[in-house]
Amino acid sequence: MSLEDELEARRQRAYAQRSPEERKVRAAAVTAVANAQTAERALGEGEPIPRFQLPSIEGGLADAGLLLERGPLVISFYRGGWCPYCNIELRSLQRWLPDIEALGASLVAISPEMPDRTLMTVQSDALTFPVLFDKGNEVARQFRLTHQIDPQVVRYQLGNGNDVAAYNGMDTAEVPLPATYVIGADGVVRYAFVDADYTRRADPEVLVGVLRDLAAERDATSGAASAPASATGAGTVAMSSEQITAEVLAAIGRASGTRTGEILSAVIRHTHDLAREVRLQPGELLAAADFLRRCGDISDEARHEYILLSDVLGLTMVVDTEAAGVADGALETSVLGPFYRAGAPWQPNGANISRGTGDGEPARIHGRILDTSGTPVTGAVLDVWGTNGHGLYENVDPSQPDYNLRGRFRSAADGSYDLWTVKPVSYPIPDDGPVGELLAVTGRHNMRPAHFHVIASADGYQSVVTELYTDDDPYLGSDAVFGVKPSLVVHYDHIDDSQALAAAGRSEPYWDLEYDFILTPGQASSAGFSTGRRRAV
Ligand SMILES: [Fe+2]
């Protein structure tokens, strides 16, 4: 039976065993992986592989560099022994091992499963080739293969007794996309099979075909080596842009294994790929460099154009959302923005942070700070800021008092907090600089929906940088910086009833927002950026 026949039989069996709901959830999860284009972004043909060393389950280290000195290398990334499709593929590779080795190549399989689990797979599938333990998916990450299994699918897996996160010794169910590579002896990928659908695997016949081509090339090269240079044209072949990419990556090799190295190599790979994809022209690269120079020129102690640029490109929200890992139902993140100013005055509960004249319509914001089980968090800090009714933050508006509409509050013993400010209004982000040009050429407006900024923090909890968005704002669906998340949309009640006003000790109508902040256990951290205040001219 061919590998594809075995996989198809398994697909049909799995389909028959699952409820319509589970089928739907699993199909949607595969579609989400496809939409995220993880497979398209994975290390691909023509790219050099990272030189890794990984412990083999039989003992000792497998060194990619040493294996390549012997000849081509076939690498199979698999999800784990819990995955039936992975076992089918591994057993198939075992059957093809003699053909692979006959062509002078080596075969290794890699998964993030802990050694005891990997050993079970080696034994149950009777594998004789090296199976390597990739702790924390470190190597899979360098191949750009990692992704998180959809939480709903994880629930089904747990129901089947499979705890993938625990199998991998990790906090989350992160796995590589199943992938099979054929690497030439020069360390460059000659064939890559990566598919968003985990039930699809590389055809071993194709792998062996690629190895046959490599063997033929090797024979041709060794035959031509004795020919005179003039006949082969040696030294006259133009260098490809991919070779330049490989050279640049090799140049930062010393940083490999460091976080800086990981980030820089990704920057190099992605920017080089971007240049190839859009066939970037030299004049366009210079225009981009000039754009960035002007972002620097217009920035000052009260304005940070690069943060604004990251915000309008949606990069800030991607980074915040990926980094946050907040619990289900807990407070979610949104953008910090370029107007946060650290050191706002401490205020007692019930205080009003509107200290200017004509700041806007009065608003009371109150509620509790709770943990995910509903227990009040005492002494939690809310660092809050907002604009006045004209949409201006005090640091860019010298007519407002210092630290106007900014303050820090601590939750009381019962977790409660209570503050007065003004009702947020929508406002334009600055469009008189390079970011404004970018918005204009892409036909976008520069408005942000009305929002109230908060950094919520407490010892033993993740600090959350976020915003609360007013539900009646016309820009809610088209935020210039993509900050709106449904859980952050809030409703202010208009209090104008004389009895309610009397109970609140107010003579004028006001807006009332009751909101509970739910914190996720974890490590507290600082905002990492603070703006200055523009001087009056
Ligand atoms: Fe803002």
List the helices and strands and how they pair.
Elements: H1 3-17, H2 20-35, H3 38-41, E1 53-55, E2 61-63, H4 64-70, E3 73-77, H5 84-102, E4 106-111, H6 115-124, E5 131-133, H7 138-142, E6 146-148, H8 151-159, H9 164-168, E7 174-176, E8 179-183, E9 189-194, H10 204-224, H11 229-232, H12 241-251, H13 259-278, H14 282-298, H15 305-312, H16 315-324, E10 362-371, E11 381-385, E12 406-410, E13 416-422, E14 427-428, H17 434-441, E15 447-448, E16 451-457, E17 464-470, E18 489-490, E19 493-495, H18 498-503, E20 510-514, E21 517-519
Parallel strand pairs: 3-4, 4-5, 10-20, 10-21, 17-18
Antiparallel strand pairs: 1-2, 3-8, 6-7, 8-9, 10-13, 11-12, 11-16, 14-15, 16-17, 19-20
Helix pairs in contact: 1-5, 5-10, 12-13
Bound molecules: fe (ii) ion.
Features:
Glutaredoxin; single chain; binds fe (ii) ion; about 525 residues; Protocatechuate 3,4-Dioxygenase, subunit A; 21 strands; five-stranded mixed beta sheet; 18 helices
Largest sheet: 5 strands, mixed
Name of the CATH superfamily of the largest domain: Glutaredoxin
Q: What is the C-level CATH assignment of the largest domain?
A: Alpha Beta
Number of DSSP strands?
21
CATH topology of the largest domain: Glutaredoxin
- Taking the alpha carbons of the first and last residues, their distance comes to 82 Å
Q: In what order do the strands lie side by side in the largest sheet?
A: 5-4-3-8-9
Q: What percent of residues adopt helix (DSSP H or I)?
A: 25-40%
Q: Please state the average pLDDT score.
A: 92
Known CATH architecture of the largest domain = 3-Layer(aba) Sandwich
Helix/strand class: alpha/beta
List each distinct ligand once.
fe (ii) ion
Strand content: 15-25%
Low-pLDDT stretches: 225-234
